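Researcher: Go.
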Amino acid sequence: MAHLLIYQSASAAKNETQKGIQKVAVIMNLLFYATVENRNARKVFEIVQLLEKEVGLEFYRNINLLMQRLRQPAQDLAAIVIFTANMEDLDDICSVRHLLEDIPVILVLPDNGEEYVRKGHLLRPRFLTYAESGQREIGAVLNNMLQKKRVARPCSRPGSSGEGYPDEDPG
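Model: Structure:
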């Protein structure tokens, strides 16, 4: 089972820190953002939990907490799945699109209305779908992204010698 962190409000995140809850080390994290309870988001979330064991799943319902997370280094982020319920949600996400530049985005719009699609493309998503379709497709796209991210990870840590490969014994 994947590791799960859910942030609904600033006080919830603060309480987690105060209680000394430790985050489990994972290879990469997958972010979810949905401001309202969404059965489609829940279905996709359940699919992803079955896909990967070494992925941390972070679920955000608050744009300010998501912004805080996106300001942290992104090297551990595999992707972000954004579920928008209305134009206000999409406007909020578009206002922080500069924070999404280095993260693959999967965008789920409430419908295929021209204004939603036009504005949604401002986020430059890797995959764009609509609320009433695409749960399985999102799962497949995420699975491919996670597999590519795993293969692309270097063998050594940044700053070590070997340009991503283990050091060879010179003798």
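Model: The radius of gyration is 17 Å.
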